[in-house]
């Protein structure tokens, strides 16, 4: 079988362990040395653990920071799809402010189309002359958008019927 090594959370450094394998009556002993590294990562923290905006109304925010100091500036380029916009197209993290959360505000584009609840995406591209940071991947941020262009449905159930509409308020 294949041994699995799982270090404690936040462990960084060198570790080692001895092992023995019995295969058909033959005992084989070994020693393994492991180096556990903390790989560079971009931290995306959504306010309230989600990102929800309203067309023509409420905005939302999230923060961006790095998990370790870079050797050179790290540029985070933000891009969006059509339904959302962001307060900044680029963020720069330096060797002195890498752990300071930079706030990004997200706004829904008020487009006049009736779309109910839909979503938008914010993508992040990382570039740096520090090879440890250049090109690392960051998961897209999915934004929930509540539309303001919907009208209440018209229901004619006849004179002897009662209709209950269940769900969100209509604007």
Short description:
This protein is mainly β and 171 residues long. It contains no helices and eleven strands.
Largest sheet: 5 strands, mixed
Determine the strand fraction and express it as a percent band.
Answer: 35-45%
Report the end-to-end length measured between terminal Cα atoms: 61 Å
- Tally of DSSP helical segments: 0
The class by helix and strand makeup works out as mainly beta
Strands, total number: 11
Rounded to the nearest angstrom, the radius of gyration is 26 Å
Estimated helix fraction: under 10%
Oligomer category:
single chain
What are the secondary-structure elements, in order, as H or E? EEEEEEEEEEE
Instruction: Round the mean pLDDT to the nearest integer and report it.
Output: 86
Lateral arrangement of strands in the main beta sheet: 4-11-10-6-8
Low-confidence stretches: none
Q: What overall geometry do the principal axes of the alpha carbons give?
A: elongated
Notable features of this structure?
mainly beta, five-stranded mixed β-sheet, 11 strands
Overview of this protein structure:
By secondary structure, the protein is mainly β. The mean pLDDT is 86. A five-stranded mixed sheet has the order 4-11-10-6-8, with no helix packed on it. The protein is built from no helices and eleven strands. 0% of the residues lie in helices and 44% in strands. Strand 1 and strand 2 (26-36) form a beta hairpin. 14% of the residues are buried.
């Amino acid at each position: 079988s294949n041994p699995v090594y799982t270090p404690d959370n936040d462990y960084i450094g060198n570790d080692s362990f001895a092992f023995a394998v019995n295969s058909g009556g033959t005992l084989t002993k070994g020693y393994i040395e492991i180096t556990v590294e903390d790989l560079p990562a971009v931290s995306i923290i959504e306010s309230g653990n989600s990102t929800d905006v309203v067309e023509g109304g409420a905005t939302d925010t999230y923060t961006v920071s790095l998990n370790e100091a870079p050797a050179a500036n790290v540029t985070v380029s933000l891009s969006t799809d059509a339904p959302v916009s962001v307060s900044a197209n680029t963020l720069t993290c330096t060797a002195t402010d890498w752990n300071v959360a930079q706030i990004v505000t997200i706004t829904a584009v008020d487009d006049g189309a009736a779309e109910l609840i839909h979503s938008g995406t914010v993508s992040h591209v990382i570039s740096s002359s520090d090879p440890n940071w250049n090109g690392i991947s960051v998961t897209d941020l999915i934004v929930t958008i509540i539309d303001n262009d919907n009208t209440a449905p018209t229901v004619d159930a006849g004179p002897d019927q009662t209709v209950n509409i269940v769900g969100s308020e209509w604007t």
